[in-house]
Amino acid sequence: MDGLSTFRGRRCLVTGAYGFIGAALTRLLSQAEAEIFKPSRVELDVADAVAVDAYVRKCAPEFVFHLASEGVSRTVPLEKLLRSNVRGACNLVSALGRLALPPRVILLGSGFEYAAKDGLIIETDAVRPFSDYGASKAEACALVRQEGTSLPMTWVRLFNVYGPGEPEARLLPYLVSRAVQGLPIEVTAAEQRRDFTYVDDVAEGLMRLALRLPSDASWEIYNLGSGQDIRLRDFIEEAVTALCERGINPDVRFGAKPYRPGEPMKHLPDLSKLHRHLGWAPTTPLANGMRASVAALLRP
Question: What residue numbers bound the domain in which 215 lies?
Fold first, then answer.
């Protein structure tokens, strides 16, 4: 993690710090000896503009990582998505813009903002979400760009992230839980092609993007992923291998479930801009990341 020592002693605000990606990010920031402000949802409701303004003034961050979000792993009502993902992001950016010294700001978007495409998706491609979650992120992206004209900001679109700490509703925890119980694991034919990135690589990428931000106002959008075209069936079979190594033999039934309506069979990012500007790429091989993820899920 060369270069990340720059965070030593720097004030960093992380919203969503107790979530899946937030926990990995705060761990890496802690290793870099940053001063971390990580309010829980009880401590800070990002949809409460007055509370956000007061908290931001209190901590006066130099770097902000806005990870707090609804609807990533489970379906929630559209009203709740708009309250958290749109209003919350706008409240934060508005409050940060009123600080005497503007912080560098990283905001999490989603690959689900993009329209489906057969080829690799680049940052300038059409935004046409195929889910309410993607729509809430696309709206937030447009509004925070308008709201934060005095801030150095980067909007980071993630694709498929996996690793220790994944919420129970996601694919890998479901696979492991069913396997441990000796229950059949019913999935689609799993021919979808996705980009799976290990969570620690995502956290490191966010930190590197934050360090790249200038001190004056700016706006950039980046895709962040592993750069690997992985068939969903191969991802599942990698999980099966990791479980078998621990004496657990999953009963996976491919094709037992239909594909979800409107789900693209191929959804992969072009990472040329990330590689060109950072000179960095995620390094965790799928097999290694999967073993670590399965080991974490099996811990009592």
Answer: 4-162+197-227+268-283
3-state secondary structure the chain: CCCHHHHCCCEEEEECCCCHHHHHHHHHHHHCCCEEECCCCCCCCCCCHHHHHHHHHHHCCCEEEECCCCCCCCCCCHHHHHHHHHHHHHHHHHHHHCCCCCCEEEEEEEHHHECCCCCCECCCCCECCCCHHHHHHHHHHHHHHHHCCCCEEEEEEECEEECCCCCCCCHHHHHHHHHHCCCEEECCCCCCEECEEEHHHHHHHHHHHHHHCCCCCEEEEEEECCCCCEEHHHHHHHHHHHHHCCCCCCEEECCCCCCCCCCCCEECECCHHHHHHHCCCCCCCHHHHHHHHHHHHHCC
Predicted confidence pLDDT, tens digits, the chain (300 residues): 578 999 999 999 999 999 999 999 999 999 999 999 999 999 999 999 999 999 999 999 999 999 999 988 777 888 999 999 999 999 999 999 999 999 999 999 999 999 989 899 999 999 999 889 999 999 999 999 999 999 999 999 999 999 999 988 899 999 999 999 999 999 999 999 999 999 999 999 999 999 999 999 999 999 999 999 999 999 999 999 999 999 999 999 999 999 988 889 999 999 999 999 999 999 999 999 999 999 999 998
* Domain at 109, CATH number: 3.40.50.720
Is residue 83 in a domain?
Answer: yes
- The CA-based dihedral angle spanning residues 95, 100, 101, 104, taken in that order and rounded to the nearest 10 degrees: 10
Distance, CA of 195 to CA of 198 (rounded, Å): 10
Is 152 part of a structural domain of the chain? yes
The number of domains in the chain is: 1
Q: Is residue 253 part of a domain?
A: no
